[in-house]
Automatic annotation (TrEMBL):
AB hydrolase-1 domain sequence ranges: 176-283
Keywords: Hydrolase
One Pfam family of this chain: Abhydrolase_1
Name recorded for this polypeptide: Alpha/beta hydrolase
Phylogenetic classification of the source organism: Bacteria, Bacillati, Actinomycetota, Actinomycetes, Micrococcales
Highest taxon in the source lineage: Bacteria
SUPFAM superfamilies: alpha/beta-Hydrolases
Length: 399
């Protein structure tokens, strides 16, 4: 590693270690409940973890050294992957952009990466939070593009959104870009440049339970089964401003939301194209994956699904309306798909397994163009190969 300008203190008490300990204790507690005969309590706890927005996002990586044009981090599953990423600094008030890996030192548990820039705040040794979006602010800051900060009328109240138009003048073709569960709107900004280049006005909406917007009646996610109504309202806003043709794009749970919009919205016929990046095509498969990762007995995961759906379980799970995961299984519902889809998903996605995406593409090759990635972790296909991602999306939305 090259000589540091500043250096971090040892890891003692580092927030990521504390977070790992808390997570491990939570998982161990759930498993203990299950093995001790408390399957009902374990299933309720698991379901709540899935449906409850995170109150805060703790730091998860340590900056060890900061040098001229480079930064050294501790190695984690995230920090060693090639590509472009960011760091939230000072609890999200600051932001820095990182480039490719320059050197990996397994013995020291350290990785040296390019430092592409500090957008705001001060990058110094100490705790930070990994940012997979790369972009750390609204489009006018991150992309240097004129941006309208607007609100539209959602079911629960006013919802903030960004509008970015080609040359600053809205067209009659609007793309609605839907971020994932617990993510910020910056997640979708990677799609704005290729869309603008093809004449699409970009609308980046919010939905219930986002930070700073109205929460749902129970303060829980419905995994797309209620959030779709907020995106439908955003589509109505676009139509009121002259949109005659719509494109929907969704990342992770944003993909699940988009699929519900296509199924339920009266405006779905105006949608000509769909882009899905690492989408949740089947929430049942995602929950089963995480139950296995946490070593939960299969009956506990199955019981959690039942509790989400059945009225008797609503109070234990903390929801007002049932969350029927069968409605989110688009492999089973493949025959109901009516729209052309560009589906991008990494085989190395650790959070939303790509199997259902592949299965949907195999079931509907007439509509689904499946583009498989390698190396990329969840929703990080653009990060590992931005040129390929932007060329694919640009070609798909052209015309």
């Amino acid at each position: 590693m090259s000589g540091p300008v500043t250096r971090a203190q040892p890891l003692r008490g580092h927030p990521r270690a504390r977070r790992a300990a808390v997570a491990g204790a939570a998982v161990s507690g759930t498993a203990a409940l299950a093995s001790g005969g408390g399957s009902l309590a374990a299933a309720a706890y698991f379901a709540r973890r899935v449906l409850t927005p995170e109150a805060r996002r703790p730091d998860d990586v340590l900056v060890r050294e900061v040098g001229e044009g480079e930064v050294t981090l501790e190695t984690t599953a995230e920090t060693v992957v090639p590509g472009r990423y960011g760091l939230w600094l000072d609890g999200g008030e600051g932001h820095a952009r990182l480039g490719e890996v320059l050197e990996l030192d397994p013995a020291a548990g350290a990785v040296r990466r390019e430092l592409l820039g500090v957008d705001r705040g001060r990058l110094a040794p100490g705790p930070a939070r990994w940012n997979s979006y790369f972009h750390g602010g609204p489009p006018q800051e991150s992309l240097g593009l004129p941006t309208e900060h607007v609100t539209y009328d959602g079911e629960l109240g006013p919802m903030p959104a960004w509008v970015v138009a080609p040359g600053g003048s809205p067209t009659d073709r609007w793309a609605v870009l839907v971020h994932g569960r617990g993510a910020r709107r910056e997640e979708v900004l990677r799609a704005v440049p290729p869309l603008l280049a093809q004449g699409w006005t970009c609308l980046v909406p919010s939905y219930r339970n986002d930070e700073g917007v109205p929460a749902g009646p129970d303060g829980r996610y419905a995994l797309g089964l209620s959030e779709w109504r907020d995106v439908d309202a955003a589509m109505g806003y676009a139509a009121a401003r002259g949109a005659g043709e719509l494109l929907l794009a969704g990342w992770s749970m944003g993909g699940a939301i988009v699929l519900q919009v296509l199924d339920r919205s009266p405006r779905a016929d105006a949608v000509s194209r769909v882009v899905l990046d690492a989408p949740v095509v089947d929430w049942g498969d995602v929950l089963a994956h995480h139950a296995r990762e946490h070593h939960l007995p299969r009956p506990v995961g199955s019981l959690a699904r039942v509790m989400m759906r059945q009225r008797w379980g609503h109070r234990l799970v903390g929801v007002h309306e049932g969350v029927d995961l069968a409605l989110t299984d688009w492999v089973r519902r493949a025959d109901e798909l009516r729209h052309r889809v560009l589906l991008i998903h990494s085989a190395d996605d650790e959070f939303v397994p790509f199997g259902p995406s592949l299965a949907l593409a195999q079931a509907r090759p007439d509509l689904v163009d499946f583009q498989q990635w390698r190396l990329a972790r969840h929703c990080k296909e653009w990060n590992t190969d931005p040129q390929r991602w932007e060329e694919l999306v640009g070609a798909y939305v052209a015309g």
